[in-house]
Amino acid sequence: MTNSSASDADIFRVSQSLDFFGRLVLDNPRTWRLISKFETKVLAARLADIEIERPVFITGLARSGGRILLEIMAELPGVASHRNKDFPLLFTPYWSNWLFKSAKTKAGKPALRTHRDGATKAPNSPEAMEEALWMQFFSGLHEPRESNVLNATTSNSSFEKFYIDHIRKLLLGRNADRYVAKANYHVTRLEYLLKIFPDARFVIPVRQPVAHIASLMKQQDLFRRGQKANPRARAHLKRVGEFEFGLDRRPINTGNTERTKVVYSAWRRGEEIRGWAIYWSQVYGYLADLLEKSPAVRAASILIRFEDLCDQPKTHVTNLFAHCGFPDKDHDINAAAGQIRKPTNYANSLADDEIALIKLETYDTAKRLRY
User: Fold this and answer.
1) For residue 56, what are the contacts with CB-CB under 8 A and spacing of at least 6?
2) Structural domain count, the chain
3) Residues 54, 199: contact at Cβ < 8 Å?
4) Residues 126, 181: Cα–Cα separation, whole Å
5) How many other C-beta atoms are found inside a 10 Å radius of the C-beta of residue 136?
6) What's the distance, CA 31 to chain centroid?
7) How far, in whole angstroms, is CA 304 from its chain's centroid?
8) Can you tell me the distance from the alpha carbon of 27 to that of 10, in angstroms, rounded to the nearest whole number?
9) 235 belongs to a structural domain
10) Do 120 and 112 meet the contact criterion of CB atoms below 8 Å apart?
11) CATH number at residue 68
12) Which SS3 state, helix, strand or coil, does residue 303 take?
C-alpha cells in the first residue's frame, strides 16, 4: 500500500470555496428544490414551448470510453449538456447559466483531470452531473445490499416533473434542442428512462475486460490515495454521488444481491482483480440480459466497443450519430473522429496469472459482447 505523500495530496484537491458552496446546495436539498420550483414558475411561459426530443444517455462502467463520447456529442450544434460550471447550482440550471454568462467569467485554463488519463477539464467542459439530483429523490441508489434497479414499474412523480423541467430549463438556457448526458449509474435505469422519455437514445460503451480492469484498478489507487490525503475530496465525492472509486467505493447492485456481496467481499479482502472481474461481468451481463429481453431498450441502444471506436473512429462516429439522430454532416463527423485516440498514457502491468483470472471470470459475458 502506498503511503500518503505530497504527490498524493496533488491528486485530488477540493478548494474551500467549492466545498463550502457544494455543502450549501447539496446539504440543503429541500430549500433548493423550492428555489427550483420558483425558477420553473417564472419561466413557465417560455418552457411551454420547449420539447425534449430524443435525449441521449451515455452509460456503462467508468473507463469504458464514455467521456470521449460525451465530449464529441456535447460540442455538436444545438446540444446541451451539463458543464463543470453548472456545479454547485445544479437545481437552477437556467439562472446559473445566466449568472455565469452575465459575470463574463473567463473560460479558465484547462487542467488535468483527477483521473490522470491525459484528459483535461475547464469550467465549460462537459461533465456528468445528474447523480447529485437523482439522489435527492430516491433512497438506496448506492446501497449495495439492495437492488439499485429502476425499471418500467418505478414511479416517482415528484422526480419526473422536476427532471423534465430541469432538462427543459437547460435547453432553454443553452438555446439548444437536444440533451446529452453521461451517467454511469443509469445502467440500471434504462427501462425507467424509457418510461419518462419513450424516444430516448442510449449509448453503451464497453471495453475489453483485461484492459478495462487494468484502467479501473489504476483509478481506484489514484482516488484512494487522493482521498486519503484530502478529506474534503472524499466528502465532496459522497456529496455528488460518485462511488465508483476511492475509500467509499460501492458496486452497483444490478438486482443480484448475493453476487454483489461477492464483489464487495473480494474488494474488502484486497482481491482487487477478482472483485473487478466479477463486477465487470455482473454489470455487462445485466445489460446483455436487458437488451435481449426488452425490444424497446434494444431499439433505443447502441453498444460501442472502445477498441472498435479507436480503430475505426469515423465509421463508429457515423453509426453513433445515425443512432442518436444527429445530422450526418461530414464536418461534424470528421471533427469528432479526429478527437479519438488509443490511450497511451499507461501500460497494462498485469501479470499472466492475473490476466488469466480476468478472462476466467469474464469469459461468458465477454463472449456475449463479441470479445
Assistant:
1) 73, 178, 179, 180, 181, 200, 201, 202, 203, 324
2) 1
3) yes
4) 9
5) 18
6) 26
7) 15
8) 26
9) no
10) yes
11) 3.40.50
12) strand
Give the Cα-Cα-Cα angle 22, 234, 269 (nearest 5 degrees): 150
Torsion sign over Cα 78, 180, 120, 236? positive
Q: Is residue 357 part of a domain?
A: no
- What is the C-alpha to C-alpha distance for residues 28 and 25, in angstroms, rounded to an integer? 5
> Which DSSP letter does residue 27 get?
T
On whether the CB atoms of residues 192 and 152 are closer than 8 A, the answer is: yes
What 8-state DSSP symbol labels residue 264? H
**What value does the mean pLDDT take over residues 322-339?**
95
Determine the Cα–Cα distance for residues 227 and 217; give it in Å rounded to an integer: 15
User: What does the pLDDT average to over 129-142?
Assistant: 96
Assigned C-alpha cell, 301? 441502444
Cβ neighbours of residue 48 closer than 8 Å, sequence gap 6 or more: none
**Which residues, including other chains, have CB under 8 Å from residue 1's CB and lie 6 or more apart?**
none
Reduced to 3 states (helix: H, G, I; strand: E, B; else coil), residue 203 is strand
Facing residues of 302 across strands? 203
| Reported pTM | 0.92
- Residue 108 within any structural domain of the chain: yes
Is the link from the previous residue into 198 a cis peptide, with omega within 30 of 0? no
179 within some domain: yes
Instruction: Please give the angle made by the CA atoms of 155, 185 and 16, to the nearest 5 degrees.
Output: 110
Domain that holds residue 340: 16-218+296-350
Longest dimension (CA), the chain: 63
Give CA–CA dist 23/50, Å, rounded.
31
| 295-304 tens-digit pLDDT | 999 999 999 9
Beta strands (DSSP E) in the chain are 56-58, 79-80, 111-112, 120-121, 178-182, 201-206, 301-305
CA angle 250, 114, 8 (to 5 degrees): 90
Query: Binning pLDDT at 50, 70 and 90, where does residue 344 land?
Result: confident
What pLDDT sits at residue 1?
41
- At residue 359, the pLDDT reads 97
Closest CA to 185 of 137, 241, 223: 241
Q: 239: closest CA among 87, 97, 347, 346?
A: 87
pLDDT tens, position by position, 173-194: 999 999 999 999 999 999 999 9
Whether the CB-CB separation of 128 and 184 falls below 8 Å is answered with: yes
pLDDT value for 101:
83
If you average pLDDT over every residue of the chain, what do you get? 93
